[in-house]
């Protein structure tokens, strides 16, 4: 069922086996998996079924570090969470992402990629993806062109799958509404987490709507699934019984914030006879939409002290009609509005998207014109390619989310986001590009013009809006907030779900891993409740 706390019809107290706070990919997946196992779930969502300015405004905060990032508009406070505007690229983290590295302090998870593989496979259908196969050899027989003939022990072709992208509100809202094991309450903002008399476990959660209706929730297990920024904000704000906040005994909540550095500066020119069709655009094989890029082999990553990275070749045409540099957030907003109107409905977040289009009208106009012209002009071969990536950062405790004095209408302190982009992060990426260039040259395929200077210009790095790491997973309570099962080290029945538990970010977009971890957590919770 789905109900609204603003109705005033909620009982004074809700009960369930598990209380899940947040209805994004992590929360909805977790609730549905638990319901399949017969567990009663109370699912709390701060927003409504659709975008609302008042709920969204609760995300407002400050940017105090690297400025090419956003703390509010990049997240959505409504049913379905930020799946309402993700772009849909998916891949699992690599085995090397889970492994501790001597050259990189704080790298490595307390679990391994093999531990997640079964859950990655189960996550694929949630995101409308194809088979759990991300090795190029599997797709090679039906690929539209050959892979670049590079030494695969040095640089190899990587595969990402493309979700439509799945909007969790559109796909799962009615499923949740019809599920008798799930009691979902909208406009239910978490305002306190109350511990028992011993201070070792959560006794209840308090929730309140913006118009003052309140409810208490009691459960055996509690899960916070509100995203990489908000998870930390909630723990830091709930300090009535622990002055430093919940789970923050070692000052780690909010630290190790990491993101993917979105950079598109390095240029590759391939020889005329090189067939790069595979990499130039998305391809559909069977029912699966695929993106192909280049990756450095794991042994080389470690030996050369690099961060992980997947580089995609973005075609650059002499005829600008076919270039896509207009594809920023104004164009994305415009595209979403067009799609909604084409399906006979008013776009969600119409006012916000309209403003984004107006603010970036020049690029939107350019994009619309080019799309029309592409229907009548023949497409020529690209003259070059830009390398685009969401590059990994090294774990950094100084990159963090903290509270500021300003409070929201519910009394929660707002956050400051201090995202750190370091010289070393950028220089590791420069060396990555340089190595790819060397391999292209050695194979006689082309040449490269490096787009990362030395010393590096930090302004080239933009956020992928992948908020991660603020309640990181680690076996040692002095080095992480949650354990290998996503449970707070210091609170016996409180768990975190979503990208805040990532110990390292790798270079894969996080939604597939978020969903896999949610399925894994559902298995654990169900087993502990048996």
UniProtKB/TrEMBL annotation:
Domain Glucose-methanol-choline oxidoreductase C-terminal, residue spans: 395-518
Annotated organism of origin: Methylopila henanensis
Record protein name field: FAD-dependent oxidoreductase
Residues in FAD-binding domain copies: 17-53
Keywords assigned: FAD, Flavoprotein, Oxidoreductase
Database matches in InterPro entries: FAD-bd (IPR002938), FAD/NAD-bd_sf (IPR036188), GMC_OxRtase_C (IPR007867), P2Ox-like (IPR051473)
Family: Belongs to the GMC oxidoreductase family.
Cofactor dependency: FAD
């Amino acid at each position: 069922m789905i109900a609204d706390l603003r109705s005033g019809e909620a009982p004074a107290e809700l009960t369930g086996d598990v209380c899940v706070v947040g209805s994004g990919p992590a929360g909805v997946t977790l609730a549905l998996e638990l319901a399949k196992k017969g567990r009663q779930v109370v699912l709390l969502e701060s927003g409504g079924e659709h975008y609302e300015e008042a709920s969204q405004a609760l995300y407002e905060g400050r940017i105090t570090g690297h400025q090419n990032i956003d703390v509010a508009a990049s997240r959505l406070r409504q049913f379905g969470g930020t799946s309402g505007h993700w772009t849909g690229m998916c891949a699992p983290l690599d085995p090397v992402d889970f492994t501790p590295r001597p050259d990189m302090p704080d790298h490595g998870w307390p679990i391994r990629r093999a531990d997640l593989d079964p859950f990655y496979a189960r996550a694929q259908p949630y995101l409308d993806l194809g088979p759990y196969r991300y090795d190029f050899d599997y797709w090679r027989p039906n690929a539209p062109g050959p892979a670049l003939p590079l030494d695969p022990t040095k640089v190899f072709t990587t595969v990402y799958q493309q979700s439509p992208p799945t909007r969790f509100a559109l796909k799962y809202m009615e499923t949740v509404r019809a599920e008798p094991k799930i009691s979902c309450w909208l406009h239910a903002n978490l305002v306190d987490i109350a511990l028992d008399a011993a201070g070792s476990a959560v006794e209840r959660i308090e929730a309140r709507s913006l118009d003052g209706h309140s409810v208490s929730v009691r459960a055996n297990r509690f899960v916070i699934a509100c995203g990489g920024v908000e998870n930390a904000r909630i723990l830091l704000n709930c300090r009535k019984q622990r002055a430093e906040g919940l789970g923050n005994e070692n000052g780690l909540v909010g630290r190790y914030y990491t993101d993917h550095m979105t950079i598109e500066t390095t240029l590759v020119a391939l020889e005329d006879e090189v067939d790069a069709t595979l990499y130039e655009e998305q391809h559909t094989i069977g029912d699966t939409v695929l993106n192909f890029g280049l990756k450095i082999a794991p042994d080389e990553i470690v030996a050369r002290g690099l961060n992980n990275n997947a580089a995609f070749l973005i075609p650059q045409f002499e005829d600008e009609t076919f270039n896509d540099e207009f594809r920023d957030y104004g164009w994305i907003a415009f595209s979403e509005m067009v799609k909604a109107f084409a399906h006979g409905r008013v776009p969600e977040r119409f006012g916000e998207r309209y403003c984004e289009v107006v603010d970036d009208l020049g690029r939107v106009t350019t994009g619309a014109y080019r799309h029309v012209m592409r229907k009548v002009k023949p497409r020529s071969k690209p003259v070059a390619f830009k390398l685009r990536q969401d590059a990994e950062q090294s774990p950094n405790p100084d990159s963090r989310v903290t509270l500021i004095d300003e409070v929201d209408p519910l009394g929660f302190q707002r956050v400051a986001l201090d995202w750190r982009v370091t010289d070393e992060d950028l220089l590791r990426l420069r060396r990555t590009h340089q190595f790819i260039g060397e391999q292209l040259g050695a194979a006689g395929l082309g040449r490269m013009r490096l787009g990362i200077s030395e010393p590096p210009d930090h302004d080239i790095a933009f956020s992928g809006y992948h908020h991660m790491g603020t309640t990181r997973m680690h076996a040692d309570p002095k080095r992480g907030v949650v354990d290998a099962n996503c449970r707070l080290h210091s609170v016996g029945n409180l768990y975190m779900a979503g990208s805040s538990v990532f110990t390292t970010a790798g270079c894969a977009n996080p939604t597939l891993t978020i969903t896999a971890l949610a399925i894994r957590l559902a298995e654990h919770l169900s087993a502990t409740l048996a």
